[in-house]
Amino acid sequence: MKKAILSCLMLMGVLSVSAQEQKGTTEYVFEPHWYLQLQGGAQYTTGEAKFGDMISPTIQGAVGYQFSKTVGARLGINAWQSKTGWDEETVNKVKADGYSLNNTFSFTYIAPALDLTFDLSNIIAGYNPNRKVSFGAFIGIGLNYRMQSDDAKSQLLTMVKYTTNNGAENWGWTPMYDDDACLFFKGQAGLTMDIHINDAWSIGLEGNFNMLSDRYNFKKVGNPDSYFNLLAGIKYNFGPTYSTRFIPAPEPEIRYVDKIVEKIVEVPAPAAATAAEPLRRDIFFEINKTIIRDSEKQKVQDIADYMNVHPTSKVMITGYADAGTGNDRINDRLAKGRAQVVVKALMEQYGIAESRISWDSKGSRVQPFEENDKNRVSICIAE
Predict the structure, then answer these.
(1) What is the average per-residue pLDDT within 222-232?
(2) Which of 226, 269, 343, 344 is the most exposed place for a label (fewest CB within 10 A)?
(3) Nearest in space to 105 (alpha carbons), one of 95, 94, 91
(4) What sign does the CA torsion over 89, 90, 93, 98 have?
């Protein structure tokens, strides 16, 4: 009785823990990358003829490098056809003087250019590699090699003053003979829109304006020439365009409040039962697979052995997929399958009761490892 009373008077140390459970976050990290672009469409060459008569086909190919989230560069080649033409009044005057003149004729060209590109979506709304539609702009300089045209000599005419046989002065039409191939400097600018299919492929739309010096359209009139291109095509990114980095939550703050303890009676305390340490096994899978490899089957057996030794233990299985490949729909399916295949193995091969197994799937939205390939995993924790 005396020992019991004295034990009740003993002062104990008080441990005060102040902490709030927090979860980690996944951060997207931009990866510089090369890309290839192929496009086709229509060109409108500015001129006096009707709008529909000045439309011609054009194609474009480009290779580019995205340096950062917002800025890149590309080297492209645009080529095929441009057109030149006259208004109907001019055509009728020439025909009235006995000459034959068509409203328009086409000529070929090839035009390489170097552009500085800007990702407007990332500049305005911030970096998001999962954005389905993005907008951009570019500005650049280049060359345009206009080739010869068989129609130039017969179709390009100018009004000149001449003297008739009887001495009278008159006006008439004469060929300009400006049909030689020429090299022109050009400046260009435009806007783009990309519809992303996945991390590698996208469908792109582009509109650009090109300005060149006079005589590009074979006519010397004292002002710059120009044309517009409207293009559509595909774009392929080489390598991953981004990676993910998992940032764990900070450790909870722990405050210790100590009090002086006066020992009145020292009574040996009974030995506390030693709790079993939790067991963790990371079961890794091949890309786009939900089958447990032979090299990983021992890990499943380790979990089963632990649970047989500790009959009250339970296991939590969480499936993941890597964010470097696929999309959310594919990765959700893979992560779920990787968790369920481990559950099935524990139940059917090792006889672990279903009530002792819990599972979850995180897809690729959570990345437990910094190395991308390790995130094709089922993390199993038994305790």
Answers:
(1) 94
(2) 269
(3) 91
(4) negative
What is the separation, in whole angstroms, between the first and last Cα of the chain?
41
Percent of the chain with pLDDT over 90: 62
Q: How far apart are CA 235 and CA 74, in angstroms?
A: 12
Residue 270 pLDDT: 57
Residue 92's contacts (CB-CB under 8 Å, 6 or more residues apart) are none
Beta strands 357-361 and 279-284, pairing class: unpaired
Q: Which of 26-30, 84-88, 102-106, 166-170 has the lowest mean pLDDT?
A: 166-170
CA separation, residue 71 to residues 122, 139, 221, 223, 280 (Å): 10, 12, 38, 33, 44
pLDDT for residue 23: 64
- The H or E element that residue 308 is part of is helix 297-309
Q: Which residue has the tokens 């190395």?
A: 371
Q: Is the dihedral of CA 211, 212, 217, 221 positive or negative?
A: positive
A 10 A CB-CB count for 154 gives 15
- pLDDT tens-digit readout, 193-217: 999 999 999 999 999 999 999 889 8
On the question of pLDDT at 254 being above 80, the answer is no
CA distance 303 to 219: 83
DSSP string, 80-110: EEEEEE--HHHHHHHHHTT----SEEEEEEE
Compute the chain's Rg from CA coordinates.
Answer: 38
- 3-state SS, residue 77: strand
Residues 67-114 have pLDDT tens digits of 999 999 999 999 999 998 777 777 777 677 666 667 788 899 999 999
More confident residue, 141 or 246: 141
| Residue 230, pLDDT above cutoff 80 | yes
Q: Please, are residues 232 and 205 in contact by the beta-carbon 8 Å criterion?
A: yes
The structure tokens listed for 333 are 């399916």
Please say if the pLDDT value at position 291 is more than 80.
yes
d(CA 150, CA 45): 19
Strands (E), 217-344: 225-238, 242-247, 255-257, 279-284, 315-319
Q: Yes or no: say if 176 and 218 are a contact pair by the CB < 8 Å rule.
A: yes
**At a CB cut-off of 8 Å and minimum separation 6, what does 380 contact?**
280, 281, 282, 283, 299, 303, 315, 316, 317, 318, 342
